[in-house]
Amino acid sequence: YHCNYCQKDISHVPRIKCAECKDFDLCLECFSPHKNTHDYQVVENLSFPIYHPDWGADEEILLLEAIDIYGLGNWPGVSEHVGGKNPAQCRQHYFAVYIDHDMMPLPRPTPEMAQLHKKEVCPWQSLLTRIFPPPHIPFPSARPLLPPRGGSYDATGFHPKRMEFDPEYDNDAECIVADMEFSEYDNPADVQLKLQMLMLYNRRLDERERRRAFVLERSLLNTRAAQAVERRRNTQERDLYARMRVFARYQSQSSHDELVEGLLLEARMRTRIAELREYRRNGIRTFVDAEVYDTEKRRQKAAADAAVAAANAVHGQPYSGPGRGAGKARAAAAAAAAAAAAAAAAAAGGGMMQPGYGTPLGDDGLQLALAAKRGVPLDITCMPGVELLGSRERELCAAQRLLPCHYLALKDMLLRDCEKNGAITKADVSGSPFLPSSLSHFSPLLSPSPFLPPSSVCVWRYSTRHIYVVG
């Protein structure tokens, strides 16, 4: 301490402290010139020890003042404020006297101070306590602590009242300036280096603030709402939003949403254009035919998966496709049903067995074999063009799983060839690239004959509206 008038050191002598002026100390000689209307305090010499022989009372006061001013942990500043003690001594003394003991937050008492607090106990005190126990006053029960509510803090670590995250972005940014001090003895190069470090620290703080403002502006703390919106999107939308998320910081929320919606619209249009091109390559011109095509495409895919499952089950290989257990069961059931139907037809019709296959070649043997090979007949009841077909033609289309519009196109082609050439043989039909070769097995459906042997010579003759088969 120094006198504010004569600047004399008065640290170890009694001094006068003005109670109204801030940090105003006077020596005994300079006390009278000060304002006589102010209150004052007489401060005696406090160099005597209290808790430790090496620490006086004045140093204890300075230590507590320095911690209150500079904060706990800034021991270089505390040491400079106390004077005569290094940072390690200040830290060790503070923790030993004020922290590391059972009477915290009170200071650790010395043995002499502990003796002063002891009271003389009356020899009859225990007897009086047993005879006249003190009244028991129940304390009001404390309210039970509520369990912590699950909110945005659990997932994001955001403190709404402090407007901070725990931990913050770039949480170690303060480490570069934690021990920095500007001293009057620093040379210009050191001062310039410290200023550059402060500029870097400010840039990191600006980036932290920018990210915090971005999160609060976009309402990214409401994780439940974000998850609900994410669940309503399909896989393509979720993937696109995840890939475009890195560009959200370069534009506003509305602009980013418009950009992503535009990209999604472009992806949908490209997908639709690819579907329409596929329809055109397959000769489809109406949406009704497109629906039929999609249904047939899905059926063929399911049939291919079932065939793979059946083949794997026969060869003892595991099936890795969807519904592996159900696929094996369906394949086994279909094979058993086909075998039972073939056996029943053979027993009822007494037909001959085809060598090497065990399939009867009676009246219905060939149809049963082909039906077992091709699966369930196609339902063409509501398909376009079915009203133009006869009963036998409908049976043919259903058995061959042929669309009525395709059958009518093939029929028109055959009628035109018959009109042009007069007659078409079976060899001409089988050699046509537009007519499926399997139609030659179903010639009975186009002729009055119940069954036409495969070795017979068939000639297709043209009539007004029908094709007749003669052998």
From TrEMBL:
Cross-referenced InterPro entries: ADA2-like_ZZ, Ada2/TADA2, Homeodomain-like_sf, Myb_dom, SANT/Myb, SANT_dom, TADA2A_B-like_dom, WH-like_DNA-bd_sf
GO cellular component assignments: nucleus
Residue stretches making up the HTH myb-type domain: 55-103
Molecular functions (GO terms): chromatin binding; transcription coactivator activity; zinc ion binding
Listed SUPFAM superfamilies: Homeodomain-like (SSF46689), RING/U-box (SSF57850)
Domain SANT stretches: 50-102
Record flagged with keyword Ribonucleoprotein: no
Chain ranges of the ZZ-type domain: 1-48
GO biological processes: chromatin remodeling; regulation of transcription by RNA polymerase II
Keywords: Metal-binding, Nucleus, Transcription, Transcription regulation, Zinc, Zinc-finger
Myb-like domain: residues covered: 55-98
Database matches in PANTHER family: TRANSCRIPTIONAL ADAPTER 2-ALPHA, TRANSCRIPTIONAL ADAPTOR 2 ADA2 -RELATED
Protein name (record): Transcriptional adapter
